[in-house]
Amino acid sequence: MNRALLGVLAGTGALSAWALLNPAPATNGAIATVVAAAPARPSTGNLETDSSPPTVLAAGVGAAPAASADALPAHWPAVNIEPATRNPFIVTPPPAPKPVVAAVVAPPPPAPPPPVSDYRFWGRVLVQGGQRLTYVARGVEGSPVAVDTGTRLDGGWAVESISDNAVVLVHSATQQHSTVSIPLHATSQQ
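The structure corresponding to this sequence follows.
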């Protein structure tokens, strides 16, 4: 450690020990100076003329307390403070929250019903080379259309697959499937 710091620390320790071992104040008759407030005078508004020094009283070891009490004013001026609106030591509950009115939201329109396939099986034909053509018609009076896997039909339908007993259609917008069944007697007559 630094020697100067050690010296300051030792001096502080010695002074503290002396103060603890000699608690009585020195009786050397030194005079303490007390500054008292000047009596209230009307202010003239001019700081240069109203600069009188404060009253200084001497108070020694045996001075009477009445001498210092005469210098203090008998009545202190009223404090210009507004009264409190509430007691800060009493907990008040927070104000009730204002009710929130929820905005009326119209329900969304109902989803459109899923499309219904109105295609029906019309028939099958066996052509030269052993190839089978499958026909479907739309509605009761619709004209027959030859279909194969991937054929696009009216109303957004497409042929997904063709088997011996069914034609599976898929709607391109909703990916909904519809099965058009093929009657048993239609395959046995071929």
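The chain has three helices and eight strands.
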